[in-house]
Design goal:
This protein is α/β, with parallel strands linked by helices. It contains 10 helices and 10 strands. The chain has an 8-stranded mixed beta sheet, sandwiched between helices. Strands 2-3 form a two-stranded antiparallel sheet. The longest helix has 17 residues, at 107-123. It is globular, with a radius of gyration of 20 Å.
Length: 373
Amino acid sequence: MSSSQGPKSPKSPKSHGSKAASPEPNPAPPAIVALSAEEIREAGILPGAHWTEQPIEQVDDDGASTIGSVASTTTSLTSSILEYRTVHGRTYHSEIGNAESWEPNDQRHVDSMDILHHALMLSLGDRLFLSPLEKHKIHKVLDVGTGTGLWAIDFADEFPNAEVIGTDVSPIQPAWVPPNVKFELDDCNREWTWNEDSFDFIHLRMLIGVVSNWHEIFRNAFRCARPGGYVESMVTSAYVRSDDGSVKKGSALEQWHGIFWEGGKKLGRTFKALEDDLQKKAMEEAGFVDITVKDFQIPLGAWPEDKKLAEIGLWWKMGVESDIEGYLNYLCNALLGWTTEETLAFCAHMKKELADTNIHSYFLLRVVYGRKP
């Protein structure tokens, strides 16, 4: 079962248990090797120097200020956990298991993720999930890759009688949370240590570039879900498109996906989960039934005529532009070999294009959920 909804350029007609013993840690991943010049050319990625050579007007870099920043503090964990590694002045989580994050975990990126949490809710029609949950049957919930923890907190508020556990490799969640929420450090790519039949609902949101084996993730989710329980996964595509040709070849928006797709190959953690239909395929293989696929077309910016879609697009624009550098810094530095100046120049072009309402850009968002029989 599937559905699709969203904007069309240039007009938008519709809105739309306890844990088992921990296994031995997996071996560390191989060192990341930068793409060669030939690989970069074959991928159609323009060199970093291209962006520094193009003239650009100054763009305000305070995209999140119009809505304010959501306060967030780290949990009080051991000092070793709080020892972050630094790349081009941005901090990333310390090594846990075999995880290696391409996203920063500093305050600027936390604020960006909080903005995007709201954008994601708006994209689903002001909902936290799409699975047909029955409130009286939801007692224990797992949020895999919880990030800043806002989804887990909001879900716990909506389901006050449910225990909600959020896991992530970075301790960037708030210290003050509802009494039915707790956060744990965990790498979802390792063997899950939860007992079988532990959870009534398992939620996996925006794990693109994080998961090394999607089939293994859903095998673990199937084992840990209770019979009758649901598992839901949300991903987005990095491919930015337009129906009217306003996203031009060679523009920053058009180049965006190539950076992530090639970066995912090198990291061994794909950014093409949507394009390769990995959620549905892995759910089917794991044994889930009643699998439902829902696609959404998400505008980037306030260009749609439909007011609700324009609001959604504005929040996505603010979330992305509030820390474009954070989303690109690691991939451009470690994989493309760009300098900080080159990365910042690309980001400036990206912001300029996002601000141009004559560019009717959008991307696809997919939610897939299924039930354990």
